Amino acid sequence: MLLLLYQEGPSTEGIFRRSGSAKTCKELKEKLDSGIEVDLACESIFVTASLFKDFLRNIPGSILSSQLCDKWVSVMDQGNNEEKIKSIQRLIEQLPRANVVLLRYIFGVLHGIEIRSEENQMNAFNLAICIAPSLLWPPVSSTPDIESEFTKKISSLVQFLTENCCRIFGDEITSLFGEI
């Protein structure tokens, strides 16, 4: 899934913004959940992007860990970019190893899309708006106003992570998928 998004996302206008066919997504999700092999290369890249966001939303406690939610939200209130990066790196160290590995690949994909934003219309801000709600959510539900404010803060964080992913995760993030 991530490899397809890495390969096709940068040249696809509106990737992560446009939804795939709900019927196709539902059918493919059922197949994937039951262990049936699916060739996503035969599907629309928008279906793959929708399935991937659904996968992220179904990670128990979120990939960034709802237990660390308050700390993630407060990162963007800190001083300069260096302080934010250090705080983010400390939070990443608190995540399970599998989450960190997946995050590196996610931000490798987002970085590849963002550097071709002139072509795909998906700069770091647009990507963050589309993907942030799938990466972190509060541990308890709240009022619509509080959820709206939370979404803005998390989107700002994801935008910062995307724009600074090489400094946060290391320069090798740009070559995680090898030469394709």
Automatic annotation (TrEMBL):
The gene coding this protein: Arhgap20_1
Domain named Rho-GAP: residues: 1-169
Phosphoprotein among keywords: yes
Keywords from the UniProt entry: GTPase activation, Phosphoprotein
CDD domains: RhoGAP_ARHGAP20
Coiled-coil regions listed: none
GO molecular function, one term: GTPase activator activity
A Pfam family per the record: RhoGAP
Organism: Aegotheles bennettii
InterPro entries per record: ARHGAP20-like_RhoGAP, Rho_GTPase_activation_prot, RhoGAP_dom
SMART domains per UniProt: RhoGAP (SM00324)
GO BP term, pick one: regulation of Rho protein signal transduction
Protein's UniProt name: RHG20 protein
Family matches, as PROSITE patterns: RHOGAP
Top-level taxon of origin: Eukaryota
